[in-house]
Design goal:
Length: 792
């Protein structure tokens, strides 16, 4: 009752011994079966009317048969003296006021920014009583068009009369003409479902009457009225399922192994994670991370020590939150099979369904995403980006001498050659994953793809069901070949010619990591700058040998490029910076403010509209997003939000983002600052400088600058990183597959993630709270693959 921190039964004693705080409020919720009435139905009964806590209810229980009773009392340590609440007679007034405030307060997670934690959707009041007109309307699975205009995007199906109409217009020029809303105002039909969002797991439903997105528990029946089968997404002209027609196998069905009876798995290491609303990317990454022994030892193995040395506010300590989450996943306490008596009761009530206990990573997500413009939102994210974000946090908060992220770190040797002088430069950089391009030109079923595309267009024009999906089959060897081929270096400056020239670059492994992470680069941008996904099948091998990609270094007969940095060009007119206006206009045409576009192009060094677009996405929620560009060092002021990578001040103090990026690679903070100062804050040149200056010049740098330990009270058990450079675990380049993360959907901004892990000799699928034995692991449709080294 002093810090207002909450603890479970097994941790409250530790907190008392550590802090001496002796007064705690004990909150408990009881689940009570309702008393049946004379007619056989359950009578609502609230003993003492005690449901006052803002807690989540158990979604697995039928609210028609169960109710909740909350209990609160003060507990005085060390004697465990209990005082029931409320108790005005025995308690001082201030204590009573404090207790009442706690009991009546809302959950802190509900008080977060609405963009960060959206409330769960509510069931529409119209869902149960919705009237559907039997007008013979049947909806094909594709080829839709608004019935009042020619729009073919952002279309909504009215669930009363089957009208297909466009949605509202948005500021960026997308959306529609609002015909769906006009139809509601004219006819009063309240519910509509967005076409293109229907999957076997549900669909996006909007209530015009309630003016919000809602849940429709009867959506399958409502869609079937218009001939749409949610499970197969295939309809015939009469709207009935034709058993002679092979159902279209969608990406959602294959990856989630729909239609196959999967056996639930229980026990340590088989614990699911609740989806908080587009948090499946986080769950998929963490399930995979905590299947690795090094992470298990670092956090779960050190759990007592981490908890004992945790700060007074453990909610703000990364290692405490990692240990807590890892314990929840690996202890087995939250993954227990139902008792036989429960199963018998469920069968008798004809309500048998697998029980998924699982954990809710609310506190963990709130902490690791704090301050991040994307992960702190409730939008879907890229699992690869979150993986790197998590590794960065692990690096900055490492415990003791063992850093679990060392198992992913490897060195990449980059060989850059000047095409005119033929001289070369060898550099090394740190990386944590191998990104493989998708070699679409190497598809082995090109004829089938061409035929499918023709049939698809014909079906769309005739408003017929689409043909069975044909995916491009890409050989893994072709992706590996594309990775190893030389690539052109844009804007290459040759130190041999002292001028810009054509250059090519090849990449090889200077070291092989203990665990190799392979990302298939399925996501790209279309011509309209809309993120798109390549729906391809890649025959990923169970056993992988990349020893032939081992770096060789400078070869006999090769001549190195002189170690001369390009000249620093200061514009004659400092108030008129060099900005690529064509890139600015490209971004402005997409609907972004002109000044924001100019800042994006400037702060990304005129590297093109695609890079500037990424800058805009990362900064568009900042208050000074659309303010005019102010150049540092010339009387202007650069705000903290706008000072992205590449912003340079008069004092040449490196931007903190650059320093954090280099330290996340395993280098010391003082070395990172020194390298950036020596290269005028050029990130690429700073890395080259580090590898060419192995001995730091300023060894007197204080120990507090060697390691970033902000917000971390575990400093007394942190060990300083070595000064010999990034730590690597080199070895053989032979690996075996043990896990992969798959994505369903059209882009990283939408869809769903699941992970498959190989445990105890068999594959297991982790789909939010559901953890089951996998029957058909879709290895060819994965997005991120995890390999472990095969011992020599």
């Amino acid at each position: 009752m002093n810090t207002f921190l909450g603890f479970g039964r097994e941790h409250v004693e530790r907190h008392y011994r550590k802090t001496g705080q002796c007064v705690y409020m004990h909150l408990k919720r009881h689940v009570i079966e309702k008393v049946p009435g004379a007619s056989g139905g359950a009578l609502p009964k609230m003993r003492n009317a005690m449901q006052f806590l803002d807690l989540e209810t158990n979604g697995d229980l039928n609210n028609d048969d169960f109710e909740y009773e909350d209990e609160a009392k003060l507990v005085i340590f060390p004697d465990h003296y209990e005082i029931p609440l409320p108790n005005i007679e025995e308690l001082p007034a201030l204590v009573t006021i404090a207790c009442d405030a706690v009991l009546s307060s809302k959950s802190p997670y509900r008080k977060q920014d609405p963009d960060s934690w959206e409330e769960e959707l509510q069931v529409s009041k119209h869902a149960k009583t919705l009237v559907q007109i039997d007008n013979g309307v049947r909806i094909p699975p594709s080829g839709w068009k608004c019935s009042k205009c020619d729009l073919r995007e952002n279309l909504w199906l009215n669930l009363t009369d089957g009208s297909v109409l466009c949605g509202k217009w948005f500021f960026d020029g997308s959306g529609g003409n609002g015909h769906a809303l006009e139809h509601y105002k004219e006819m009063g039909y309240p519910l509509a479902v967005k076409l293109g969002t229907i999957t076997p797991d549900g669909a996006d439903v909007y209530s015009f009457d309630e003016e919000e997105a809602v849940l429709d528990p009867h959506i399958a029946k409502h869609l079937a009225h218009f001939g749409i089968d949610m499970l197969q997404m295939h309809v015939t002209e009469n709207g009935l399922r034709d058993n002679n027609i092979k159902p279209r196998v969608s990406e959602w069905e294959v990856i989630q192994e729909s239609g196959v009876k999967l056996k639930p798995m229980y026990g340590p290491g088989y614990t699911g994670m609740k989806n908080l609303g587009n948090s499946c990317y986080l769950s998929a990454v963490l399930q995979t991370i905590f299947s690795i022994p090094e992470f298990q030892r670092a956090y779960v193995g050190n759990l007592p020590r981490i908890f004992d040395y945790s700060p007074l506010d453990p909610t703000q300590d990364f290692n405490t939150q990692m240990a807590k989450l890892g314990h929840g996943l690996l202890s087995g306490q939250y993954s227990k099979p139902p008792m036989k008596s429960e199963l018998i009761e469920q069968v008798m009530k004809e309500e048998h369904k697998p029980q998924h206990n699982g954990i809710s990573p609310l506190m963990f997500k709130a902490f690791v995403s704090k301050g991040h413009p994307e992960f702190s939102s409730n939008r879907q994210q890229d699992a690869q980006e979150f993986f790197l974000h998590l590794i960065n946090l692990v690096e900055r908060n490492r415990i003791g001498s063992e850093n679990p992220s060392d198992v992913f770190r490897f060195l990449v040797e980059e060989r850059t050659q000047c095409c005119q002088s033929r001289k070369v430069r060898y550099t090394e950089r740190v990386d944590y994953l191998m990104q493989l391009p998708v070699a679409m030109e190497a598809a082995t079923n090109k004829d089938e793809l061409i035929a499918y595309e023709l049939k698809r267009r014909e079906a769309e024009a005739a408003r017929r069901p689409p043909p069975e999906l044909v995916r491009a089959k890409i050989p893994f060897s072709a992706c590996l070949q594309a990775f190893s081929e030389p690539e052109n270096v844009e804007d290459f400056w040759s130190s041999a010619l002292q001028a810009k020239s054509a250059g090519v670059k090849t990449s090889r492994f200077a070291s092989f990591p203990e665990y190799l992470v392979v990302q298939i680069k399925k996501f790209t941008f279309g011509l309209d700058w809309i993120p798109q996904k390549l729906d391809v099948s890649v025959d990923m091998p169970d056993l992988l040998d990349i020893n032939h990609l081992r770096a060789t270094g400078l070869q006999p007969g090769e001549e190195e490029l002189p170690d001369i940095a390009p000249p620093i060009i200061i514009p004659d007119d400092p108030k008129a910076p060099d900005i690529d206006e064509s890139s600015v206009m490209q971004l402005a045409e997409m609907g972004f403010p002109l000044e924001a576009c100019r800042k994006a192009v400037y702060y990304t060094g005129n590297m093109g509209a695609e890079v500037a677009f990424n800058w805009i996405i990362a900064h568009m929620e900042e208050p000074d997003f659309a303010e005019p560009l102010a150049i540092p060092g010339y009387g202007g002021v650069v705000s903290a939000g706008a000072a992205g990578l590449g912003a340079i001040g008069l004092d040449n103090q490196p931007p903190e983002e650059m320093v954090a990026l280099i330290t996340s690679m395993g280098f010391q903070r003082n070395v990172a600052i020194q390298a950036l100062k020596a290269t005028n804050n050029n990130l690429e040149h700073a890395l080259d400088w580090i590898f060419s200056h192995p001995e730091p010049e300023e060894e007197s740098e204080s120990a507090s600058d060697v390691m970033d330990v902000e917000n971390n009270a575990n400093a007394n058990i942190l060990a300083e990183a070595g000064s010999e450079g990034p730590r690597i675990k080199d070895g053989s380049g032979r690996y075996e597959l043990f896990g992969f993360i798959s994505h369903m959907g059209t882009s990283t901004m939408s869809g769903h993630y699941v992970s498959h892990l190989k445990k105890e000799g068999r594959w297991v699928i982790y789909n939010d709270l559901k953890v089951c034995a996998s029957e058909r692991p879709p290895r060819d449709l994965g997005y991120i693959y995890f390999y472990r080294r095969i011992p020599s």
